[in-house]
Structure formats: C-alpha cells, structure tokens
Structure prediction request, 192 residues.
Amino acid sequence: MPNLNLQKLEFKKTPFQDLIISNPKIFSDERGYFYESYNSRLFQEFAGFSPNFVQDNQSKSTYGVLRGLHFQNGEYAQSKLVRVLEGEVLDVVVDLRKSEPTYGKTFSIKLSAKNKKQLFIPKGMAHGFITLSPTAIFTYKCDAYYNKESERGLAYNDNDLNIDWLVDVKDIILSQKDLENPNFKELKNISF
Prediction:
C-alpha cells in the first residue's frame, strides 16, 4: 500500500459508475515540471479494476472543432483515458448503459494543458470534445483496438440531451460523418 502522502495521482468519482477524474500531483521547479500521468497500481487501488490499454491516439484541432459523439459497439467497445497536452477542450460523455441510473444523461468537464486533469471513460459511453482554445492537442488511451465496423455516433445537437458545448453554434466545425450521426432516441442494437 503506497504512503498516501506520497501518492502522485488523485482520483475523484463522478455521479456516473466508473467515470473517474484523475488529477496528477505536479512537481515543479526552475527547470519545468514532472508528473505521473497514469499508474495502473494506483488506479486499481482506487477503482477496483485496471484497464489494459492497447492503443494510444492523438489529434490536433483548431477552435470550434467538435469531434463526436463517438463510441464502439459490441465486443469492440472501448474504455478511454483522455487528456489534453496543449490548449483546452470541453470533454463530454453520454451514458448509453441501459442498466445504469445515469442512462441517457451527460457529463462534461474542461480538460486543459494547464489543469492537467484526465477523464477515465468506461465502456458504454458516447464521447466527444470541442476545442475551446485556438488549438488543442488531445490524446487518449484505449483498452480495445479501433474497429471500423463497430464505430457508431450520436448527434452532438440532440435536443433531448441538450448539451451546452460552450461555443456559438455558428463557430462549431464538424466532419461530414459527425453531421450524420443519429439522435439518442434513434440508437438501435447497442451492446457493451
């Protein structure tokens, strides 16, 4: 058991089952800073499980770029650990797990290079983010490989979800694929 005074990561539960915020302890001096961004043992002690990450992804986006809401269905469903290396984003998840009391509800958090917060997103959630700064570099770990056939999406502007993306709608930039995502009520054959 680690000495809690020396613990390098602080974890915080959210109202959503297994959706976890991670705050690293930053060690700074005149040379710069150092922090431990992930520790499997500490995560296991806090959450009671530890994901086996198999793939890392990274993207760079300009202001107003909205990527999402995305998820992988079935056996290729992914848990993710997301963070921002440059700039700031609003990170949003929608719980698609019918067995959870938070089913159909949203959670959002600002992630930035400055606050260095991370969000662990369990399987069964749609995920997206929008860039709030001039540019942002977003990176995440996944516990399952990308599978094109199981990739699904959810409309970012679903009226029932009513997500406030903190960016004027005229400034939101989406891919053609994300413009065609269905509304929450139209999702069918979802399994995790």
